[in-house]
Amino acid sequence: MSGKSAYSNPVYRTFEVHVLGSSAATPTSLRHTTAQALRFHNKWFLLDCAEGTQMQLRRMKIPMMRIHHIFISHLHGDHYLGLPGLLFSLHLLGRKAALHVYSPPGLREVIEVQFRVSGLVPQFETIFHEVVKGGELVYEDADLAVESLEMEHRIPCFGYLFREKPIERNIRKESISRYSIPVRQMAGIKRGKDLLMPDGKVVPNEEITRCPPRARSYAFCSDTAYTEKFLAQVMGVDLLYHEATFLQDKADIAKEKTHSTTIEAASLAKKAGAGQLMLGHYSARYKDMGLFLKEARQVFPNTILAEEGVVTQVSAFASGT
Amino acid sequence: MSGKSAYSNPVYRTFEVHVLGSSAATPTSLRHTTAQALRFHNKWFLLDCAEGTQMQLRRMKIPMMRIHHIFISHLHGDHYLGLPGLLFSLHLLGRKAALHVYSPPGLREVIEVQFRVSGLVPQFETIFHEVVKGGELVYEDADLAVESLEMEHRIPCFGYLFREKPIERNIRKESISRYSIPVRQMAGIKRGKDLLMPDGKVVPNEEITRCPPRARSYAFCSDTAYTEKFLAQVMGVDLLYHEATFLQDKADIAKEKTHSTTIEAASLAKKAGAGQLMLGHYSARYKDMGLFLKEARQVFPNTILAEEGVVTQVSAFASGT
C-alpha cells in the first residue's frame, strides 16, 4: 500500500451528481420534479427526466448533446415528462448520434406517438431498452457498469446503481526509468502483473506500482416505499440517493403512497453501510428542507439534501479505501 | 352617445393576457416556449401549453383549478408539451370538474397513452374537441365567443379569436327613479328596447340608457407564415398576438420554416386595422428583443412584446369606441 488516501489520489476521475429537480409528484414554483445529470469523467448520463429538464440542463450549462444514455426509473409523469421535449430539442439542434433510453416498458409508445402527431421524423435513433427486473446489468462501458435496482412502488419502478470499474494500478514514475519498463508490458502491469526483465528476472508488481484508488459507486433509488429488496446490491455504496417524500410523522401516508420517510431512507443507508446519503423527492407540501436533514441525521449523520443546481462529488467515503 | 370614452367606462370587465412563455421551438435558459393565460372577468382560459406551463402558472399565481378550457394551436412540442403534466397535477390536486381541450386531432391519443402507462385513472373528465378548420365557432358562453383561425404552417394549426359579446346598455341611475322602471322591463331596456309606461307612453331607449362600451377582441395567431387567410376574421381586432419568430433579415428562413418576421406580423396588424400588436415566439437565437420592437414599429407603431410574467389588458383601442 502506498499509504496515500484515496482522497488525495490524483488518478480519481470526475464522478458528480448534478441535481436538476428535487420535488415529488408536482413541481412547486421553486422546485422542479426529479432529474439528475451524472458526470463520469468525460461522459454525461441522465437519471430521470421530469418536465423542464431541458431548461435545467441549459441553466446548469450541461451539454445535452453529450448525453447518450438516459435512465428512467418509472412512468409517473414527474419522472419522464421532460423526455419528449428533450428529444424534440435534440432533433431541432441537429443531433445525429443515437440515444439510449432505459426504462420500464411503455416509454417507446409515449415518445413515438408524439413524434407522429408532430409530423417530425427524428434525425437520430432513439434506442429503447426495457428494464423489467432488478439485479440486471443494463449498461456497461470500459469504466462503468450500471445495474437495475428493484424499487417498491405502485407501478414497475427501478433504481440504478452506477459502479466504477476497478481502477488500474499506477506505475511509479521512478520505476519506469529505473527498470526501463517496455511499453508492451505496461497494460499488464497496470492490471497487476509482475515485470519480466530481459534477463529473466521478475520484479514483483507491488514494487513498481501504487495501489489504485478504490472504485466508487452511486445508487439512485426513487421512487420506493421502504424495502430491502435491493439492499445486497447497494452494500457499501459511496453515495446513496434515496427518496424521502415525507417527514417521519407522515409514515402512514408514505406507506400508503409507496414512498419513504426521512428515517426510512436513513435506516437503509445505515444498513447498507453507505458512505453518504442524499435525500430528495420532497413532497410539495414542505417548505423547510432543514427538517428533512435534521431527522435523517439522527439515524445517519452523513446525510445531505438534493438541492437544485448543486453538484455533489461521489467520493470513496466508505471504509476500506 | 354619452360622450364618455370606453376607456373610462367602469362597466368594462377584466380582459387580460398573461404571457407564460414567448420562445420558439426550444426554450432557452431564460424563456419558456409558448403559453398564455387569458382572463376574462371571472374565467380563466389557457392558450397553448408548452413544457413548464404548470410551473409558470404557479409562479404567476394563476389558479389552475379555475381553468376549464384549453386551446392548443397545433401539435408541435413547443405548444403542447406541458399539457400532460398539467393534467397529472390537476388529477393529483383532486380536480373533479371536467376540462375541455380544443386542438387539431391527435392530442387525445397523446394524453391517453400517458395516463395508461402511468397507471393513473383521472378523477375528472377531459373532453377533447377537434378543431379541423378555420372560421368555426369553437366555444361560446354568455360573455364570449371563440372562433378558430386558419394558420399557414407545416402541420394543421389554428389561432383563436376571443370576441367579447355585445355589452348591454347601461340604464341611467336617474332614469330608474324618475320613471320608476319596473324590474321586469330592465333586461329588455339593457338590450335596447324602449320603456313602456303604465299610461301607454313610450320613453325612447336613448333617453334612459347610456351607450355601452364596445365589445373587445383578442386574436392569438401562432404559428404561421405570413398569410391573409384569416384577415377578414380579425379586422378591427383590439389586440393581435402574431408570432414573429425572426427579424426581417431572416425572411427567407421564416418562409422556409412557415414562420413570420417582425415586418410580416406588423403588416398584418396594419391591414387588419388592429388596435395593438403583440409579438412573440422569438427564435432562441435572439437575445435582444428590442430589435423586434424597433422593426415592427416601423410598420405598426402600437406594437408591444410578449414578455413572460407580463400582463396586458385587452383595451378597446381601435377606432369607433
Strand content of chain A: 25-35%
N-to-C CA distance of chain A? 11 Å
Estimated helix fraction of chain A: 25-40%
Classify the oligomer.
Answer: homodimer
Give the integer mean of the pLDDT values of chain A.
94
CATH class of the largest domain in chain A: Alpha Beta
Shape of chain A: globular
In CATH terms, what is the fold-level topology of the largest domain in chain A? Metallo-beta-lactamase, Chain A
The number of helical runs of chain A is 11
Structural class category of chain A? alpha/beta
Widest beta sheet: strand line-up of chain A? 6-5-4-3-2-1-18
Order of helices and strands of chain A: EEEHEHHEHEEEEEHHEEHEEHEHHEHEE
Our Rg estimate of chain A from Cα atoms comes to 22 Å
CATH superfamily of the largest domain in chain A: Ribonuclease Z/Hydroxyacylglutathione hydrolase-like
How many β strands of chain A by DSSP? 18
| Number of structural units classed as domains of chain A | 2
Q: Low-confidence stretches of chain A at least 5 residues in length (pLDDT < 50)?
A: 1-10
